[in-house]
């Protein structure tokens, strides 16, 4: 891979994106073995620097680094010197002095990961694990791995080396505050997918007309266009400073994947094959709001697979960044 850092999916070339996904396939095979370890990063130190709460992402990166035999340091802003006013620069320089080879950073400020990578505070590789409402590249990569698996299986082909040309992906919900949506839009377009968005007008970013997407305001209308995958997004109440829709019940009625809409989705077919479409959600889910329990637990759901693919993708990213290996 040609990159030193992973900050944004917009930075990934087609070749880099496929290199990560193909390496993740190999890492997934390792994860299925009885002994789930590789010596690839033995003697290297990976720091998980999390200024925001996280379960899936932090644990996934920790598992990925440990399966590659790296030493792992988990740093949480809560209970640290950050709560006493220590700056990002001082924190990073302290960690760098401890020999960090890679810093995985999650921060509430958009651009924090890019600022760190562009600074002279550290020589470590920087991986963006989510920065404000900007991007979350490894989430998009694990989503792409999940979609590629389903798309290839439906067409009876191997996922390795394949892209998503012709696949229609519908992303539903809080686009405005979603770093996951942004990363997915850039990556899925790079891989050849056709991306559509559906949301209340109040939850769409300014300038959306210039993005490489088709925009709907009605979920029923968007489903009538027969997408191959439906990705539901969480309503991010913690990032909302005002009323973006009347109430949760109204949101569910108009934009939620309800049991009634699940019945519609179950009739759709993936890429004109006999396979059913895929339902994804980056988590954590607000069951009964953006997605019903029946939809989340249905045979179409790939939500559990997304979580498991997260470890494989993050293993691939750390391996490629820290070894300079070519997939």
UniProtKB/TrEMBL annotation:
InterPro entries referenced in this protein's UniProt entry, alphabetically: Asp/Orn_carbamoyltranf_P-bd, Asp/Orn_carbamoylTrfase, Asp/Orn_carbamoylTrfase_sf, Asp_carbamoyltransf, Asp_carbamoyltransf_Asp/Orn-bd
Superkingdom to which the source organism belongs: Bacteria
Catalytic activity: carbamoyl phosphate + L-aspartate = N-carbamoyl-L-aspartate + phosphate + H(+)
Domain Aspartate/ornithine carbamoyltransferase Asp/Orn-binding: residue ranges: 166-320
Transmembrane segments: none
Binding site for L-aspartate: 84, 179, 234
Pfam families, A to Z: OTCace (PF00185), OTCace_N (PF02729)
A single GO molecular function term of this UniProt record: aspartate carbamoyltransferase activity
Known pathway: Pyrimidine metabolism; UMP biosynthesis via de novo pathway; (S)-dihydroorotate from bicarbonate: step 2/3
UniProt enzyme class: transferase
Record-listed carbamoyl phosphate binding positions: 56-57, 106, 136, 139, 283-284
Record-listed E.C. numbers: 2.1.3.2
All residue ranges annotated as the Aspartate/ornithine carbamoyltransferase carbamoyl-P binding domain in the record: 4-148
Record key words, sorted: Pyrimidine biosynthesis, Transferase
Subunit comment: Heterododecamer (2C3:3R2) of six catalytic PyrB chains organized as two trimers (C3), and six regulatory PyrI chains organized as three dimers (R2).
Physiological role: Catalyzes the condensation of carbamoyl phosphate and aspartate to form carbamoyl aspartate and inorganic phosphate, the committed step in the de novo pyrimidine nucleotide biosynthesis pathway.
HAMAP family according to UniProt: Asp_carb_tr (MF_00001)
Family under the similarity heading: Belongs to the aspartate/ornithine carbamoyltransferase superfamily. ATCase family.
Protein name: Aspartate carbamoyltransferase
Organism name: Nesterenkonia massiliensis
Gene: pyrB
């Amino acid at each position: 891979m040609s990159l030193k850092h992973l900050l944004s999916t917009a930075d990934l070339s087609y070749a880099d994106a496929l290199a990560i996904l193909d390496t993740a396939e190999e890492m997934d095979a390792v994860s299925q073995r009885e002994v789930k370890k590789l010596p690839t990063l033995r003697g290297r130190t990976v720091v998980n620097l999390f200024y925001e709460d996280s379960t899936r992402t932090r644990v996934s990166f920790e598992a990925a680094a440990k399966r590659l035999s790296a030493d792992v340091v988990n740093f949480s802003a809560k209970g640290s010197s950050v709560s006493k006013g220590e700056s990002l620069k001082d924190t990073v320089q302290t960690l760098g002095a401890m020999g960090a080879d890679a810093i995985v950073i999650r921060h509430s400020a958009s651009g924090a990961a890019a600022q760190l990578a562009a600074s002279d505070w550290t020589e470590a590789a920087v991986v963006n694990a989510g920065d404000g409402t900007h991007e979350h590249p490894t989430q998009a990569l694990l989503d792409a791995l999940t979609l590629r698996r389903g798309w290839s299986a439906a067409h009876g082909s191997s996922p390795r080396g394949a892209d998503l040309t012709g696949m229609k992906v519908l992303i539903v919900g809080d686009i405005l505050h979603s770093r996951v949506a942004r990363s997915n839009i850039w990556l899925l377009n790079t891989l050849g997918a056709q991306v559509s968005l559906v949301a209340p007008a109040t939850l769409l970013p300014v300038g959306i007309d210039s993005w490489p997407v088709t925009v709907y305001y009605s979920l029923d209308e968007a489903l009538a266009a027969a997408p191959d995958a439906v990705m539901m997004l969480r309503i991010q109440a913690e990032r909302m400073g005002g009323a973006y829709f009347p109430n949760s019940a109204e949101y569910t009625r108009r934009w939620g994947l309800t049991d009634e809409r699940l019945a519609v989705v179950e009739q759709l077919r993936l890429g004109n094959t006999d396979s059913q479409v895929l339902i994804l959600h980056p988590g954590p889910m607000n069951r009964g709001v953006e997605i019903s329990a029946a939809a989340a637990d249905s045979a179409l759901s790939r939500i559990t697979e997304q979580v498991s693919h997260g470890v494989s993708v993050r293993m691939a990213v750390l391996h490629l960044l820290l070894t300079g290996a070519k997939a």
